[in-house]
Task: structure prediction
Amino acid sequence: MKAVLDVGQFISATIQPRGHPAQILMAWRAGKFELLTSLSILADLRRVLAYPHIRKRHRWSDEEIELFVDSLALAATLTPGQLQVNAVEDDPSDNKVLACALEGAADYIVASDEHLTKLKAYAGIPIVPPRRFLEIISEAQK
Result:
């Protein structure tokens, strides 16, 4: 099973280590699904993690931010990042998540971002909230 996480999932995982997004990252590290991402998603993640109001919550140094993002780049499956998608007009930065999902032939997109969740699916790829994705992972293990 392959999934793409929107940037908010990574941010939430750094802020709430016991929350659903953190549990999703633990499941990925345990080999329960393949994480797809792209250099543009990782660049966005690096930028958002450095926002002062986010930094206050996770309390990471620049080096810790770099280590986290670099570890994702090394361990996740990187898609080429060449596909351009224009499906989210209200927040064009969300299009990179959809493009990554298409390029990597994802089974799921995990998102809490309203611009993505209101689509419900894109090109046949379901867009699910983190709690539902955890249920899907659990069901797949049975």
Remarks:
- The chain has one domain: 2-141.
- The chain has eight helices and six strands.
